[in-house]
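writing this on my phone so excuse typos. first protein, seq and then structure
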Amino acid sequence: MCPESSRNIREVQCASYNNKPFMGRFYEWEPFAEVKGSQKCELNCRAIGYRFYVRQAETVIDGTPCDPNGTAICVAGQCKSIGCDDYLGSDKVIDKCGICGGDNTACKVVSGVFKHTLTNLGYHKIVEIPEGATKINITEMSKSNNYLALRSRSGRSIINGNWAIDRPGRYEGGGTMFTYRRPNEISSTAGESFLADGPTNEVLDVYMIHQQPNPGIHYEYIIPGDNVISPQLLAHRRPGEPLNGQLGMPESTSHEDEDLHRETDILTGQSAGTFPVIQPGRFPSHQPENQVPAMQPPRQNREHNWKQVGKTECTTTCGKGSQYPIFHCVNRITHEEVPEGYCDSSTKPIPEEEACNLFPCPAFWDIGEWSECSKTCGLGMQHRQILCRQIYANRTLTVQQYRCQHLEKPDTTSTCQLKICSEWQIRTEWTSCSVPCGVGQRTRDVKCVSNLGDIVDDEECNMKLRPNDIENCDMGPCAKSWFLTEWSDRCSAECGDGIRTRSVVCMTNHVSSLPLEGCGNNRPSETTPCNNGPCAGKVEWFAGGWTQCSTECGSGTQQREVICVRKTEGNFDVLNPYECSYLEKPPSQQSCYLKPCGSKWFHTEWSTCSKSCEGGFRVREVRCLSDDMAASTQCDPQLKPEEKELCNTQDCVPEIDENCKDKYYNCNVVVQARLCVYTYYKTACCASCTRVANRQPGFLGRR
């Protein structure tokens, strides 16, 4: 493994060509990684500041990573995978428990969803993360105005504590590093999250700052199984120390071996007096516990001792950092530094932490993320939180705002506009009223139009401001006036008192002969008295009483007997109806009305068929009227009469009219010149004009 501070091995290989001319010029080279397949193990380098790359070598040095972030390496120009055990070609991978080549049985996944309904605002505990947890994932199931918070069991706030909302980023706590994410994109629906690899070294509590209904919090972490040996415990265990209730060393180990163990370094397994050659970044393997080191350490004496030669750099430049003393092994007399093996390691002072740079760091404005725009289109507002913060003891604290008065405070509000709002446009004028008289409707075309002029869905415009696209129209009362007939010529009685009658109707354009209120209440009389003189042996019609009405409601009919009689003194003689034939016979039937039946469908007569043959159609008007002849909506739609039907479906048979013939041979010119509208040409070219009229209804007319 290369040290973290060292340059990338591909950078080193490409930079080796900086002092070699290419096409007569010198360039500085950097790795070009945008290649695929077998090219990954070629040394492709790009000229810095230019837009071309060159294959400087067919293969890179063995051990060069194939990809910047991958684990495979190049060997003899081929990509070879490396297992987690660092063996070339091994297929071992780290399981979810963090064990190389494991089978996922050495740990347990703990997961769940916090869905409790909360009522009080503020901090509410969600879940407890135990010590030793790994692969921690705390995620809000959808975006909300709530915030996640993290605190140690000792009470130390890690993220979003004390009502101060931290910015997204990385925060140390519980022995691991937590990544705090808070998506702020307008289109994003993802919620906040805490992510950490672990393991934790203390119990942590996750809270939610409740401000609106809980969308649900998903939590998941991994804990070791009951009988799992922790890798950390193995690395720091002293030989012979109990492990999970058992000693790590066999009971038969001799006391000599125990003494040997005590003189063995607990991390490397090497003898404390030897100087092992350690490869960079790797620990040497442990020596067998029953094997004596090949080289005995030099005898320790009092000629050398430990001396403080300085201190480490302070971890911070302000706000209380820490530093440690540095001890080297020196000659007691000359004070020259010598290898540490000449000093007794057991007497080496343990470096103790010392505070440094205690003065506070300058306060600064901590600028939060902008909120979503208050409007999805048009001019809106967005807000952000501005806090005065100060760093002390590796913690960022919220302080009084006057401490930041030396800095200009950023704006907390700002105008925003995601896009220009769409608007309503009236595309057409009002249509004609749907009825020639009375109350009807008229319409117009109203569309939602974007700022680019495109017609978009109505939802993109403000529905409260939508202009009406349909409205009622009143064309005035349909009834014009009362229409009267002349009085009847005959008196109802040949002698004595009688009456003369006339018809009175209120005419409309839709439902003929219906009495509507539009004609007024002063209906003219339909009868007038008359007298043809005294009766003396004259014959006359005699009418009996009316029968019951034929219906229980609405309009019905009644019947009565009408006979021809001659009146004599005190008697009536029944005669043959013929004897009264010269007299107007009284009606033997009349309409009757007992009570209202409710709304009914009324219709006009059918119109003339649109075609005389080969299928035309005819129409009629249908209205729902109440008992008082007013428009109603109470009729049964299932019983509504048809308003349109087919008619004259028979085939057309041309009729030959002997009186309709063409008098000239060039009548086709008359038709082409559209002269058939004139009476002269219509007569002179009767047959041709008639044929074209049958093909084009409405073609002919008078002028």
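second protein below, same order as before
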Amino acid sequence: PQRIYYLSLEFYMGRTLQNTMVNLGLQNACDEAIYQLGLDLEELEEIEEDAGLGNGGLGRLAACFLDSMATLGLAAYGYGIRYEFGIFNQKIVNGWQVEEADDWLRYGNPWEKARPEYMLPVHFYGRVEHTPEGVKWIDTQVVLAMPYDTPVPGYKNNTVNTMRLWSAKAPNDFNLQEFNVGDYIEAVLDRNLAENISRVLYPNDNFFEGKELRLKQEYFVVAATLQDIIRRFKSSKFGCRDPVRTSFETFPDKVAIQLNDTHPALSIPELMRILVDVEKVDWDKAWEITKQTCAYTNHTVLPEALERWPVSMFEKLLPRHLEIIYALNQMHLDRVAALYPGDIDRLRRMSVIEEGDCKRINMAHLCVIGSHAVNGVARIHSDIVKNSVFKDFYELEPEKFQNKTNGITPRRWLLLCNPGLADVIAEKIGEGFVTDLSQLKKLLDFINNETFIRDVAKVKQENKLKFSAYLEEQYKVKINPSSMFDVQVKRIHEYKRQLLNCLHAITLYNRIRSDPSKSFVPRTIMIGGKAAPGYHMAKMIIKLITSIGEVINNDPYVGDKLKVIFLENYRVSLAEKVIPAADLSQQISTAGTEASGTGNMKFMLNGALTIGTMDGANVEMAEEAGEENLFIFGMRVEDVEALDRQGYNALEYYERLPELRQAIDQISSGFFSPRDPGCFRDIVNMLMHHDRFKVFADYEAYIKCQGQVDQLFMDPREWTKKVIRNIACSGKFSSDRTITEYAREIWGVEPSSTKIPPPNLPRD
């Protein structure tokens, strides 16, 4: 069969034990067996470390995709890096984020199997020699890539795929060559330099940091993986044992490479290098093969997130790849120039090489010219990709551009994390929904069924009680389990507008203070997420949230009408606890900035209602469930663009809206930081003078919309009916649907639902 290779620098897997039991259909048996031993399975599960080899959406998407590809019976491999240290653990100290190293391998990892027999060399530095026999890349430094395999089981289909993660090893002669005679100890210690490549995950989400070590990581995973792919291509029955099989003609029919963002973009020049320099394939033929093999997924439109590597860094680290990129770019620009004669500005815009004080390689442009398919991750995002980010490329080759709206695996994000809800659903419609989530539509028949309404509400209340107990046990915070659980969990970023959430919390607080006797809908506002260690504003936002909580949670006038909780160290295993307990899901990015979002889908599937902007997949969620069944507010993309043309003036809103003015004045006067009144001046200054994400412009609509949330929450029956409608309409957001679309429309393979016979039965 055609093999699918999903290349990603991040795989945010979380824990594996329960997921394996669920997918093998062993959970009840294991539960019972452990219970008979006088142990509690849940206690055992809590001991496992998260595999936190990702930052957020992009890395978690890769993990959901692996689950779906196995469940759909695809011959798929996930390839990435076995970071010794994953995403940092977040501690909150005096209200500030403090990072500590995530030593997740400290006690070993029972799920991985080292494969030293498949160790491969990866080359760096050196120089290029052009000889009559072809091009040679020589005098390189070698690092070895050691593969570790982790099994990826499909759901009850006896399929087990592989995630192969590479670890860097120094070769035994490292730094002990002729020129280093004598300093043996120093040379052995220097092995660390090579092995640092797989030491740590870069903790940036949606931000490019042009560090040489990161470029080494990107080439390391690509070079090792491509050697593996080609070895497998040659040695399978389509390989080269037979003279016919030295031909790479059939390569794109047997191999599909999916690039998860531009991080593995070097696959394109690396495949060219292997085909042309090593396998002696003709250049034009090699280029056709490369384009037919590779496909690229774009994950963001934020300019600061796009990878633009200095040419000088390439020159030193990957000199042959630089030559190849120059040649590919020349070919590409010649084609553009022929189609648009005299349009010099278009050539500049479309070049892979950006001229300027520091010449840079635009990796997104490289991916677009080197792939046969380019996709965004939600309809609105794919439209922005076509009409703005890659507009010129879309005009050149419109057939290349597709949309593949993201999804989540219903195994982890319903069965595993919310068994109570899964049972209530299965009771009504059977278990088919687990592998065909569109069957949830059948729940629409039960929207007015009183027992079902009661059962759904009961499960939610149980989840809330359980999460309340967890918070009390872990963080010693007491919350009111009958309050509305209002949750925003995601990476801390200005575009995600946790600040808008803060302004709402302050506004609610001020309303309670001004009339404590009035009846309020009690809320527990929970905000969680990590800030990149070097992102000053994001760290300030965390400090603001904790400071607001400090004031509100200790004000006797407020009581348990309002609490603001910062959820420390948000990660996959915490998401599995908080999402099933949430009543309200906040998805409030500025329209046009969140490519898709996937947390939004998890909340929808788990019986929370969404308050959100028309951004990312929220648009399609509203389309599926009906806009009246979400709390949609604020500017649309068109409004944001209009406001940009007109010029956004924060002061105008500040002067017009008294509640907004009061909140900002409190932040700026030190009401929330009495010991350091100037603490939040950077935040206030940003909001008032250079807020790219227009927080104030959506404040009024947001506060009003939150009022509608309160109104509905006071009518539990109507609230629960909306919840059921949302769950019933969440079927589209299964990653099984997403992967089926990738398979048919990009990779050219057909998913299969056939169950392989188990190993104890003979095969047909």
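The radius of gyration is 27 Å. thats all i got for now
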